[in-house]
UniProtKB/TrEMBL annotation:
<feature type="transmembrane region" description="Helical">
    <location>
        <begin position="50"/>
        <end position="70"/>
    </location>
</feature>
<feature type="transmembrane region" description="Helical">
    <location>
        <begin position="145"/>
        <end position="170"/>
    </location>
</feature>
<feature type="transmembrane region" description="Helical">
    <location>
        <begin position="176"/>
        <end position="195"/>
    </location>
</feature>
<feature type="domain" description="Major facilitator superfamily (MFS) profile">
    <location>
        <begin position="180"/>
        <end position="433"/>
    </location>
</feature>
<feature type="transmembrane region" description="Helical">
    <location>
        <begin position="387"/>
        <end position="418"/>
    </location>
</feature>
<dbReference type="Pfam" id="PF05977">
    <property type="entry name" value="MFS_3"/>
</dbReference>
<feature type="transmembrane region" description="Helical">
    <location>
        <begin position="21"/>
        <end position="44"/>
    </location>
</feature>
<keyword id="KW-0812">Transmembrane</keyword>
<feature type="transmembrane region" description="Helical">
    <location>
        <begin position="257"/>
        <end position="277"/>
    </location>
</feature>
<feature type="transmembrane region" description="Helical">
    <location>
        <begin position="297"/>
        <end position="317"/>
    </location>
</feature>
<dbReference type="GO" id="GO:0022857">
    <property type="term" value="F:transmembrane transporter activity"/>
</dbReference>
<keyword id="KW-1003">Cell membrane</keyword>
<protein>
    <submittedName>
        <fullName>MFS transporter</fullName>
    </submittedName>
</protein>
<feature type="transmembrane region" description="Helical">
    <location>
        <begin position="225"/>
        <end position="245"/>
    </location>
</feature>
<keyword id="KW-0813">Transport</keyword>
<dbReference type="GO" id="GO:0005886">
    <property type="term" value="C:plasma membrane"/>
</dbReference>
<dbReference type="InterPro" id="IPR020846">
    <property type="entry name" value="MFS_dom"/>
</dbReference>
């Protein structure tokens, strides 16, 4: 509500179309996160390899990049409702195939890689298109509130989804977990089908590479949007410890799939709380400074996670060392969860300002392409981060990737923001790309 610390829900009241789209994203997002966590657990069960889990994202990166670049052009060239609907159908079909293979006992690591890549590509187009739709449904002054509501949707998805996935995989197996995602995805179809027509506002020739090139050229003359992307890449490249969770649960913390769900959900709980109490963020004008500080706090929390893992390792409390001190390990899980919640809150504050900057400063006829590039950054950065963590973990020190990554994020982002005058002076009352 305006003037309160609590989130402003005016966008949901003002635009029924936005409200339906938001509900669909929220419900289907929960199912999507269930599948993401389940696939990671599934591959770890089949291979017992953290690097194999990391390769899920790396293999999906190429298709996601292509989908983000070309899909953004599609969103600018055609009715965004139709583009979103087609992308949703492809994503739903790929998830349904994963569920079918799991029920038949025919799943293999290569098939999981391929189907996850298809889902990632379709989801990239869907997310970019939905983000480009939002400014067509709401006035500019409500975009920060919409970004916070998007954080709520994402927070619920990555809080409820991983927790439910961990429990379901442990209790009833992978087939049921994937199948529930297939059912929940129906909510996304409803939200898209009830949208009004959203025809393009300018002519974009998607049959030519020039449409994508034009989007890239726009970024060349948009220093604030470029820096928006760059600081996020740094954070995601060096601050994504998620592929460590299965190994950390098995070797350090003495847990199972439920422990993985707790660690994953803790990050989301922090993000969710940050969104719930985001009411005053709409009054912040200097978004560039706010983004930089939020990401530096994120780096500090990632560093703290590395410290927690190091203390468990060298304190002799880990499962791998043969310790039977359950109290110490439970305390370590709690501390790790608190640290990850702090990281999630910092990341969400950054995301609210980054999303608002993109939607307010980018012209509508470029918005699909820029959102597509943004989704590539959001999806590609963590996948490269997964590779960084997977490779560094090969030396057997699970605490090292977050420890080093947290230091790099804190120092490098501070330097980047300090050297960018336009980013530091960005004013939300006069949004310039």
């Amino acid at each position: 509500m305006p003037g309160s610390h609590l989130i402003d829900t005016t966008p949901l009241k003002l635009s029924p179309a936005y409200a339906r789209l938001w509900v669909g994203q929220t419900v289907s997002g929960i199912g999507g996160q269930m599948t993401i966590v389940a696939v990671g657990l599934h591959i770890y069960e089949l291979t017992n390899s953290t690097l194999s889990v990391a390769l899920v994202g790396i293999i999906a990166l190429g298709p996601a990049v292509v989908a983000g670049l070309y899909g953004g052009a599609l969103a600018d060239a055609f009715d965004r409702k139709i583009v979103a609907l087609i992308a949703a159908i492809v994503s739903w079909g790929a998830t349904g195939t994963i569920a079918t293979l799991a029920w038949l006992g025919l799943e293999t690591v290569p098939t999981l890689y391929v189907l996850t890549a298809i889902t990632a590509a379709a989801s990239t187009i869907l997310n970019a298109t939905q983000s480009a739709i939002t400014p067509r449904l709401l006035p500019r002054e409500l975009l920060p509130a919409a970004a916070a509501l998007g954080g709520i949707a994402n927070g619920l998805a990555v809080t409820v989804g991983p927790a439910v996935a961990g429990v379901l995989v442990a209790l009833v197996g992978f087939g049921w977990t994937y199948s529930i995602d297939v059912v929940l995805f129906v909510a996304a179809f409803i939200g898209i089908l009830l949208l009004p027509r959203l025809p393009p506002t300018n002519t974009v020739r998607v049959s030519h590479v020039s449409a994508i090139v034009d989007g890239m050229r726009f970024l060349r003359r948009a220093p604030n949007i470029r820096m928006n992307f760059l600081v996020d890449i740094v954070a995601m490249l060096f601050g994504q410890p998620r592929v460590l969770y299965p190994a950390a649960a098995a070797l350090l913390l003495g847990g199972d799939a439920i422990t993985v769900g707790i660690l994953t959900a803790s990050f989301a709980i922090g993000a969710l709380l940050a969104s719930l109490f985001s009411g005053r963020l709409g009054a912040v004008r200097h978004h560039g400074v706010a983004i930089g500080r939020a990401i530096q706090f994120y780096g500090v929390f990632i560093l703290a996670l590395g410290v927690v893992f190091a203390v468990v390792t060298y304190g002799g409390w880990s499962v791998e060392s043969g310790s039977s001190d359950e109290t110490a390990r439970i305390a370590s899980i709690v501390v790790a969860a608190i640290v990850l919640a702090g990281a999630g809150a910092s990341d969400e504050v950054s995301a609210i300002f980054r999303s608002t900057m993109l939607q307010a400063a980018v012209p509508d006829h470029f918005r699909g392409r820029v959102q597509g590039i943004f989704i590539v950054v959001v999806q590609g950065g963590p996948r490269l981060g997964d590779l960084y963590v997977g490779l560094l973990s090969l030396i057997g020190l699970l605490w090292l990737p977050p420890f080093v990554g947290g230091i790099v994020i804190t120092l490098l982002v501070g330097l980047m923001v300090a050297r960018s005058k336009t980013f530091r002076s960005y004013d939300s009352l006069n949004p310039t790309p």
